[in-house]
Amino acid sequence: MLPITPGxxxxxxxSRLIGRPDPIILEIGCNDGTDTxxxxxxxxxxxxxxxxxxxxxxxxxAVKDSRVVLVPMAxxxxxxxxxxxxxxxxxxxxxxxxxxxxxxxxPHGWDLSGxxxxxxxxxxxxxxxxxxxxxxxxxxxxxxxAATMSEERIDFxxxxxxxxxxxxxxxxxxxxxxxxxxxxxEYNQRELYEGQVGLERILELLPEYDVxxxxxxxxxxxxx
Length: 224
Known about the structure:
The chain is α/β, with parallel strands linked by helices. It has a domain at 11-79 and 139-223: Rossmann fold, CATH 3.40.50.150. It is built from nine helices and twelve strands. The strands form three sheets. Strands 3-2-1-9-10-12-11 form a seven-stranded mixed beta sheet. Strands 4-8-5 form a three-stranded mixed beta sheet. Strands 6-7 form a two-stranded antiparallel ribbon.
């Protein structure tokens, strides 16, 4: 296992690895499009498919650009509808000015930790973050979505699925094996969400991939 590299993946490194000006990027768990905007600046010729199931985040999604396709669905290992556990609350404690800024940005509460997996150790590790009653959201398998598209390659998947990494991978094994170059995903060695798997299991599911960089909570994988 590679040692942990401080920080997170930079757009400069992402650009160097992709090595082309017109990548096809999947952002799975895009929230309000903050990272989408950054990627558009880094890759002016990119096509970005953004997936997000939380209605509150979708209402805040502010990227209006012909290069971006917003898909209001979760990505997992089933097609149809599924239960989604919406996160709530606001980070605490925070200095008053910072707390006010976060509250203004998130008028309906913290919507960055919701998951199709029921929260578990997340409740004790981040006690300020609560979860509301589950709601029904549409869900699609990555392989199902890819079969409807004309894209012959996926240059980069940026995944932030809050403990549902195994669902994303198992529902997209064909796409990940056949036409995906890079996968950048969160992972956690603790079961923050019920059934969450660690990095070892992720690598077992993706034997065609090598670890490029391992961060404390994220890993960058490259298809051989």
